[in-house]
Specification:
By secondary structure, the chain is mainly β. Helices cover about 0% and strands about 60% of the residues. The radius of gyration is 10 Å and the shape is globular. The relative contact order is 0.31.
Length: about 60
Amino acid sequence: RAIGEHVRVIERINNLDQTGRVMFNGMEWTVRTEDDNIVIEQGELVRVLRIAGVKLIVERVEEV
């Protein structure tokens, strides 16, 4: 049920450093992006694309 949801990054997402967390439904989730070259900073908004094992795969959402 997380797919398509927008969540705030609580730990910088960097696949190469193996970092990244969000809070979703009261639980902390490990997150990654599909592209290892994308870094998303703490506080940014992301959209959940899919679930891979126990990780959420996300993309940056452009805020207006």
